[in-house]
Structures are given as C-alpha cells and as structure tokens.
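If your schedule permits, I should be very grateful for your opinion on a structural question. The matter concerns a single protein, recorded as an amino acid sequence and a row of backbone structure tokens. Could you please explain, in whatever detail you think fit, how the structure tokens follow from the sequence? I set the record out below, with my sincere thanks for your time.

——
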Amino acid sequence: WTILKPEIKWLRYHWSDHPLYDKEWYKWRIQWMSKESIAQELEIDYNTAIVWRVYEWFPKEPMVLVYDPNKPLYIAMDNSHGGKDPFAIIVAQPDWVYWNIIDAHEMKATPEDMASFLACNPKWALETYQYNFLERYKNYNWRKATFISDPYDTHAAMWNSIIVEDFRKVGINLLTPEMLDKTEQILTTRTNIYRIRYNDNCLDFASAIMNARYPERSETSQSTSVQNKPIHDWTSHFRTALEYFMTYTKENPLIDKKRVADD
C-alpha cells in the first residue's frame, strides 16, 4: 500500500489563521458559495442551521484511508466547458460494502486542459493546490481506472469542443451512467450514502456533500410540489460527481471474482 500524507488537516479555526490560506484563496473559495455557507464554513458562524439537506446522513468525520494498488480505481467527475463552473473530481476505491473516497479535486479548466491534467501532462504552470493533488494522483494507477463522466454533456458539442473526444486524445475513455433523471440519481445516491467513507484529502468534497440542500420553503407556503432540484451553488459540482459515480456503479456493479469462485 502507498500511504499518502493529506494535503490539509481538519482544524477548527478562522481561515485567516491558517498558514496556507490568504486573501487570494479566500476570493477563489467564496465565488461559488452562498452567504450562508460563507458564514458557517469560513467565518465560524453556526447560528443558521443548514436545512433541507440533500444528503442528511452523509458521514461528518473523515477516516484514515489509503490508496490500495490491488483494488479497482474509479475517477468520477462533473464537467465544465470552461465557463464559470469548475470541474469536480473524486477518486474512489471499493472496500467490501463501502466506497472509499481517497481523493478529490476541483478546478476551473477547459475540457482539453482537464484531459491533459488527468493524463499527468498539464499544459500550464500549476497553482499549489493543483500541484499537490497531481503529485498524489500520479501514485494512483489512473491508466487502468474507470473514468465516469457527466451523462448530460460528455458527448455533446459545446463551445467547439466534445469532452469525450478531448479525453480520448490523451488515452482516457469516459463512461457515463445511462440514467438521466436527476431525481432518480439523487435517490440512488441517498440510499447508498452510508457506503461512503473519505479521508483528509477530501474535506472540500465532504463539505460540499454535507451542505448541499434544496430551496427552503417558508412556513406559510401553500405549495404541495415535491422539492426535487437542489440549489445550484458551490456544493453542486462535487455533489453531481458523486451522483454520477453512484448511479454508474449501481448500473455496472463490481463483480467480486474471488467470492464467485468460492461460491
């Protein structure tokens, strides 16, 4: 096993006291966050509770999880076509009934640049947080990983780019879940959320899943419609990457060859 040191530790103090965070990091971090999330996560203001959570039972604490080269590797992502939204990536391995999320990363990039990055051949000078992730990622057997992507736009032509083709050029084959109904994707993820475990490399991912929520209704609202569309904010990208991953692995379950042979 390769034991990788986490990039950050989970410490409860104001962001300005953290030795690795500065005003530029703060500006980058808050651009996808709501005022409520900024207050709770960065300003240590917990007076307003997050309600209408999408994944209320997501585990709140990380575990010591390490990359196991003898287990299959999955890399799932939510795409961006270079717009205001970032790519979000999670790196996962099966562990009995659990899924270990051993790494996660979020960054703005064109599909072509993201493909070169995940093929360990970036075309630009990396920022520190990108470099740190890539150094860990190089230790994973990513060439044999199953890459799972956004089922809505991976094969679509947008901005003179087709994401699946950009990745194919660098030797990465993107697969997508067949299910397109977002409500069903969320239900699949929700019923399997107890299977998710994560380590200290994935704190931004965990924060996104814990804070993803539906629009809140007032107590006087007369609406009887079902709330089935989560708020699109800074939490959305890791959330959808997880949903694509859980949906794909439900549709394509991993076969335990040893257990089949024993049976």
Notes: Strands lie at 74-78, 87-95, 98-107, 146-148, 157-158, 161-162, 174-175, 196-198. The chain has nine helices and eight strands. Residues 36 and 179 are 32 Å apart (CA to CA).
